[in-house]
TrEMBL record:
Leader sequence residues: none
Record's subunit section: Homodimer.
Keyword Lyase: yes
Family membership noted in the UniProt record: Belongs to the Orn/Lys/Arg decarboxylase class-II family. LysA subfamily.
Lyase found in the keyword field: yes
Organism taxonomic ancestry: Bacteria, Pseudomonadati, Thermodesulfobacteriota, Desulfovibrionia, Desulfovibrionales
The name this protein goes by in its record: Diaminopimelate decarboxylase
Originating gene: lysA
Entry annotation: catalytic residues: 342
One BP annotation, GO: lysine biosynthetic process via diaminopimelate
Length: 418
């Protein structure tokens, strides 16, 4: 459910006309709906109201400062994977005691930064990382709260690039190594093993893999309890899918209910790290049609948004619904929607049935709120798009469009030194 809908032949973001927003802020443009973000967070968080829990929004999905603030104001914690994300979360006013830090390659300075901020815990992904955190915590006179990220070897049945809980994945530790890891964690002086963590993949459309993983983890927790460890946190990661096309993922309430049934009697604080389910359908990317051309075998709609703005179609062949901002009821044709970048892989859709649109018209690319802007780049020296948050009848410029000067700012020093 989101608040991008057509009224009187015009696409609206909440109470504002998308056409007016593009007139003011330019194209391509990311538009987020604050009301949708709030609704998604509330639906997710309340699904776990039967459990002692903390919803740590996964910053990588959409890390705009205003989005982080909006969610933090609703009580969200954050799941981060870099010092940069920590910096963002703190700048947005997130309470550090609600921040968990995952990722296989934490740098020493990032560990120090997180210890200085006194975050809730590190989700540790290797024994070498565990030792490194202990060493740094010792140097700065702190104790680090940690979970080990367990790789439960469960098939999430999603795109291979975003399946993370299989044995062959680079993430986490298999169950045997984890046992060794907890023994070590118990001995290390500057480590406090307080939790267990797992994240099996993203865009899951069934609850079963989550339950399968949970089963393995609860059995593992019993072993840890027998070892005398007091495990207080259970972090189940993110991964709940959304509807891009025809998928029918479980509603957060069904997900919450299923987990609550298993965990209700456990004295554990449950941490969840949803990203896509909060942000995905709370944002669209609007792009202007530059040209159309009919090749011998194909028709192309060439737009001003490209793979540098939204890479998901090129990278995962993923589907994003595309529609006219101002529908005109023209006959449909099968087209490729492509951007200006010099790569055949630069497309937003291939073989898509769309009304015959013309130059200067606007298209909305839906479900672009998660892993859209955050995965954008400057490839082909294209300044990154602006981001706007609509809240009722207010539009907030959440990130200004980059300029040509921004493109060269970090390189200019070289001209003087050469
Ligand atoms: N927690 C951890 C440790 C993660 O690695 C991720 C996502 C999440 C939480 C949030 O997962 P979500 O609830 O959003 O599924 N770029 C890809 C998605 C990569 C996901 C990486 N990890 C895409 O565009 O589909």
């Amino acid at each position: 459910m989101h608040f991008f809908e057509h009224r009187d032949g015009e696409l609206y973001a909440e109470n504002l006309r998308v056409t007016d927003l593009v007139e003011e802020f330019g194209s391509p443009l990311y538009i987020y709906s604050a009301k949708t973000f709030r609704r998604h967070f509330e639906a997710f968080d309340s699904a776990f109201s039967g459990l002692d829990h903390l919803t740590c929004y996964s910053v990588k999905a959409n890390s705009n400062l205003c989005i982080l603030k909006l969610l933090a104001d609703m009580g969200a914690g954050m799941d981060i994977v870099s010092g940069g994300e920590l910096h963002r979360a703190l700048a947005a006013g997130v309470d550090p005691s609600k921040i968990v830090y995952s990722g296989v390659g934490k740098r020493a300075y990032e560990i120090e930064q997180a210890l200085a901020a006194d975050i809730l815990m590190f989700n540790v992904e290797s024994l070498a990382e565990l030792e490194k955190i202990d060493e740094i915590a010792g140097l700065v006179g702190k104790t680090a709260r940690i979970s080990l990220r367990i790789n439960p070897d469960v098939d999430p049945k999603t795109h291979p690039y975003i399946a993370t809980g299989l044995k062959k994945a680079k993430f986490g530790l298999d169950i045997e190594s984890s046992l060794e890891g907890y023994k070590k964690a118990k001995e290390l002086k500057h480590i406090d093993p307080v939790g267990i963590d797992c994240h099996i993949g993203s865009q899951l459309t069934s609850i079963d893999p989550f339950l399968e993983a949970l089963d393995k983890i609860m059995a593992f927790r019993d072993k840890l309890t027998a070892m005398g460890l007091d495990i207080r946190y259970l972090d189940l990661g993110g991964g709940l899918g959304i509807t891009y096309d025809e998928e029918e993922p479980p509603h957060p309430s069904a997900f919450g209910e299923a987990l609550t049934q298993v965990l209700a009697d456990q004295s554990l604080k449950v941490i969840l790290e949803p990203g896509r389910v909060i942000a995905g359908n709370a944002g669209i990317m609007v792009t202007e049609v530059l040209y159309t051309k009919g090749g011998e075998t194909k028709e192309f709609v060439i737009v001003d948004g490209a793979m540098n703005d939204l890479v998901r179609p090129s990278l995962y062949d993923s589907f994003h619904r595309i529609g006219e901002v101002t529908p005109k009821g023209r006959p449909e044709r099968v087209v490729d929607v492509v951007g200006p970048i010099c790569e055949s892989g630069d497309f937003l859709a291939r073989g898509r049935t769309l009304p015959g649109v013309g130059s200067g018209e606007l298209l909305a690319v839906y479900s672009a709120g998660a892993y859209g802007f955050t995965m954008s780049s400057n490839y082909n020296s294209r300044p990154r798009a602006a981001e706007v948050i609509v809240d009722g009848d207010q539009a907030h410029l959440a990130r200004r469009r980059e300029t040509y000067e921004d493109l060269i700012a970090c390189e200019k020093g070289c001209l003087d030194s050469m």
